[in-house]
Structures are given as C-alpha cells and as structure tokens.
UniProtKB/TrEMBL annotation:
KW Membrane (keyword) present: yes
Domain of life: Bacteria
Ranges annotated as biased composition (Basic and acidic residues): 55-133
Gene3D superfamilies: Winged helix-like DNA-binding domain superfamily/Winged helix DNA-binding domain
InterPro entries linked to this entry: Ltp-like_HTH, WH-like_DNA-bd_sf
UniProt KW keywords: Membrane, Transmembrane, Transmembrane helix
Protein name: Putative host cell surface-exposed lipoprotein Ltp-like HTH region domain-containing protein
C-alpha cells in the first residue's frame, strides 16, 4: 500500500513539474507540484522505514530459520553418530564377551581332559602296582636249589609225560629233598590230565593194553583215577 502511494506521489510530482514548465505562471501548477512533492516526501519517509523493517524482519526470519535448520541437522547428525558409535561399541563388547566365553569353554575342556588323563594314568599306575604286589606275594622267594628243581622238572616234561607224584619221585631220585621236589612241581604250569593222555599214548606206542589194564597202569604211575579214565577215553579204548 505504501509503495503504491509513493508511486502516486511520484507521478503527481512529475506531472506538476511538467505543468510548471508548460504554464510557469499559473499558480495551480505550483500548488500541484508542491502537493505532489510533499506527498512524495511523506510517503517516502513512511514507506522506506517500513519496507526496510519488513526486509530486515524477513532476513532475520530467514537467518533464524536457516540457523534452526542447521542446528536441527547438526543435532540429527550428532545423534546418528552417537547411535552408530554406541552400536559399534555394543557389537565390539558382544564380540569380546563371545571370545572370552569360547576361551573359557576351551580352557575348561582342556582342564577336564587333563584331569581325566591324570585320573586314568593314576588308575593304571595303581592297578599296575597292585598287580605287581599281588604277583610278588604269589611268587615266593626261591632258593637256588628250588630254582634248579623247577628247571629240572620242566626239562623232564619237555621229553616225556609224568603224573604229579611221578615227577616228585623223579626229582627225589635226582637228589632233591621232598620239600624242594614238591615245591618245584607246585610252581610249574602243567595240565596233569593232558600228561595222563600223553603217557597213555606212550604206552600204546610200544605195547598193547586193555582199557582197564591201561587205566590201572596210569593209576600206578601216579595219575588219579579220573585223569586215567579221561586219558583212556581220549586214546579210544
């Protein structure tokens, strides 16, 4: 509105000047010129500050809006950055916790395996020790004479068959005391029933026997009746 009035004032002033030049002697032109000029000045004085204020206010508003926009943008960027850093930190923490957990599990597993291995080793050593002690108790200390009696008893069995009592008699015949002969026979590994079978076969290799006769002969040699009967059955009589 003020701009329009200023424009009207300017037009009137120009028109007044034109009229002044055309009719310089006419007062009416001067009056119009003066009125236009005054109106122009008034409007100019009024409109100029108002327009300047409007422009300044508009500029301030734009600057303020731009500043607020920049602040909002910066705040959003800062918030996004903080959230990203927090997320990265949380992921790093979770990763570290996972690695620590895996390491602890691996350590516990290794300790468990080591413990089981140590227990197994201790158990094996204990069993070995107990076995050695048992064998030591089972095997009495032998004199040289007893060791010789055992070796000679095994030597006899390598080439011929004997009954238990027959082998004792043979060792006594060789000069070993009865105690040592019996000790030797008790401390050798031998199947006396198998010895009866071997002796029955040996008899049949060089002479004939009836069933009862062979049983009696084996009993005479020191075999039990049960072993003698078993041997005769095995050779087919």
């Amino acid at each position: 509105m003020t701009g329009f009035l200023g424009f009207i004032g300017l037009v009137l002033m120009v028109w007044g000047l034109i009229q002044l030049f055309k009719k310089a002697k006419r007062k009416k032109g001067l009056i119009k010129l003066g009125v236009g000029f005054v109106l122009f000045l008034i409007v100019g004085m009024v409109s100029t500050p108002v327009e300047e204020n409007e422009v300044a206010d508009k500029a301030d508003t734009e600057v303020k809006a731009e500043s607020e926009q920049e602040d909002t943008k910066a705040e959003a960027e800062e918030k996004a950055k903080a959230e990203e850093e927090a997320k990265a930190e949380a992921e790093e923490k979770a990763k570290a916790e996972e690695e620590a957990k895996a390491e602890a599990e691996e350590k516990a597993k290794a300790e468990e395996e080591a413990k089981a291995e140590a227990e197994e080793k201790a158990k094996a050593e204990a069993e070995e020790k107990a076995k050695a002690e048992e064998e030591a108790e089972k095997e009495p200390e032998m004199s040289v004479s007893q060791q010789n009696a055992i070796r000679q008893a095994e030597s006899y069995l390598d080439y011929t068959a004997f009954s238990k009592s027959g082998l004792i008699d043979q060792l006594e015949f060789e000069g070993y005391p009865t105690e040592e002969a019996m000790f030797a026979v008790e401390n050798i590994e031998v199947d006396w029933r198998e010895q009866a079978v071997l002796q029955a076969e040996s008899y049949l290799d060089y002479t004939a026997f009836s069933r009862s006769g062979l049983i009696d002969q084996l009993i005479f040699e020191g075999h039990s009746e049960a072993d003698a009967t078993y041997a005769v059955d095995q050779v087919g009589l």
